[in-house]
YqbQ/XkdQ domain-containing protein
Amino acid sequence: MNCRVEIFKKSGYSSHSTKDEDSIKLKNSLTSVRINKSRSTLTSEANISIQFQGLPLAEYQGGNEGIVDNFALIKIYVDEQVEFTGVIKSYNYDEESKIMELNCHDMSYRLLNATDEVIEFVNTTAVGVIQSLVSKVGLAFTRTGGTDYSISKLKIEEGTVYLDVIQSLLETMKANLRATKNGEVLLEEQYPDYTEGAGDVNHFDWTYSDCENTSSTNAGRNASLMRNILKIKCDKNYDKFEDPSMTNYLNGEKWYDTIENSLANTQVKRRAVAGYKFLDMWRNSTPLTTLPALGNKSIDLSQVVKLLREDTLPGYYLVVGVDTDISADNYQDTLQLQGMRDKRTIYKIPVLLSSGVEKEDS
């Protein structure tokens, strides 16, 4: 396994120099690389330790002459395959040990910014809005999934966080958004197809086993965040839904939550939001961590792992987190997995309890 880091000098908003003299390649000076990717957070992180003697650093007091600096583009390669694309967000160096620590975020960090102007859309689609917002922050966009629908008019006020608008759309589209390893923003299905009890008829990307790939696993069930009654609101309109199978699982107890979604302006969309939330709750209730797994440069979020564990039937799990550690003599992954569910059943399961319009406070 060969690992290298490339850093490119920043050159204006969302731009970086491509000149040879404005980039550096680090290999022998690397002491460790750690990459943390998770579906629970939009932005993935990389933390890199390097020997900084002789590196072209920016002036500590300010200035843009150096290459290694905040917002410089950074790419991490494993065996010539891109594992991470992002920017340096902070760095510090210890002059005594001659070690520099870089903290980097992947390119989706730009979606956490707020708009600096009013943005209006007319006669477009949900996918069109997301693509436009992604383009506004200078990122490439690709789509493999998500249910599109028409939007006649949408106004985004100045100061609105890009991700807040996108997240409301994702919930109504049954979709997920994340940055890829090469820095593009990917719109994909919220969840892959899966039929419970069908075994290997289902698609899976990797097979892991206790005796070959991993040293141990830690599994459990967690119902603390389950809410089987959801009130989905858009402006003053609301629909209240129940997941009867979750009610049964919770031993008949009723756990309630209110979800605000400014774009769920029809009952169909509010039902979609309820299904989206119920699916996430079922998914989050079956966490499993493997500690550690042999490094695999091709594994990624949203893939499916078939896990063979001693004295249990094979299990099928969604990859929701990958923590990668690389050093001179070590390359390993810690995988966060969650038990697979049949999304088609859960999307259909919300039972409408009531609908209405909330009255204004007098």
Residues 113-189 form a domain with the Phage tail protein beta-alpha-beta fold fold (CATH 3.55.50.10). The chain has three domains: 3-106, 113-189, 199-357. The chain has a mean pLDDT of 90. The helical segments are 126-136, 162-173, 244-249, 267-284, 343-348.
